[in-house]
Design goal:
This protein is an alpha/beta fold. About 30% of the residues lie in helices and about 15% in strands.
Length: about 150
Amino acid sequence: MKSNFLNIVLFEPEIPQNTGNIARLCACLGAKLYLVGRLGFVLSDKYLKRAGLDYWDKLDICHVDNLDDLIAKNPDSTFYYFTTKTDTVYTNINYKQGDFLVFGPETRGIPEEILNKNKQTCATIPMRKETRSLNLSNSVAIAAYEAYRQFTN
């Protein structure tokens, strides 16, 4: 499996422990991690570093100012936007190497304006109706490993 076969995008992440867990996951998979926009923590945060353990030197990570620039620099890639506001289940997508899986901030998700512009590439992880959402790092793990499963079958 080539390095950066998958790209994980955290749009304005707020909780350093979640980002650290996701960084560790990306290091284990060989996925590139993009942090986009305003962060709810500084990259030297001790909780971020602790959650990522000693995997930071194995991680390809990039902080970019905005999502539009990231999309413009990757015109041949597909960006999938994970949200509770769609009926397209993440397992019904045929992922390709080089795709970008985009996740929003923990407290508010991906902004509606972004979702509305990208309805055809929105995806959801099913859950019970009486629940609101999954933890961000759990959601990333679920989606990333589905893409990985498809790539290795």
